[in-house]
Amino acid sequence: MVAAALCLAPAVALGGCGGGADAPASASPAASAPDREPSAAAAPGGDRGGAAAGAITVSEAWIPDPAGAERFAVYLAAANAAAAEDALVGASSPSAEGFDLVLAEDPGGADMRPVDEIPVPPGGSTELRPDGFHLMAVGAAPIAEGDRVDVDLVFRSGTEMSVTAPVLPASAHPADQAPEDHGGHH
């Protein structure tokens, strides 16, 4: 289910989420174009993607458009029904060479630092959003509004799942999550 190449290159310089020439530390095959057809994995109504496996439920998965050259952000909510903490530790997609797990260090989300994992508390949830934790695809194929991108997620507990994230207009950010300046990729 999950591609073998989980590129979590903390050494990649993250001066922002905008397009750049940064490449993941390990080379992967070129990214392929995203699916342009609706997917059964999408959330009801087709607005945002969702999936569940084990004690983890992912909802509200989406990608803001316009995405930057060779990069795009993935936002979602991950809920953990288990009594123990879990964490998102990896991601992969046919539409990207790899993903960085990052934490925005300012309200606008322009300054980020790589993290090894994104915690999901027991009996709670974590939102991946522009001004906090989120996934950054690197070496990405071009995507546009209306595309659907398959993203495979790996959690510390061993839980793995695939979610289909639609590319939505940047205006789809909830009002409390709209980035002030997030590197120009949304």
From TrEMBL:
Ranges of Low complexity composition bias in the record: 23-45
One of the Pfam families matching this protein, by short name: PCuAC
Leader peptide range in chain numbering: 1-15
Annotated stretches, region: Disordered: 23-49, 165-186
Alphabetically ordered keywords of this record: Signal
Superkingdom of origin: Bacteria
Name the record gives this protein: Copper(I)-binding protein
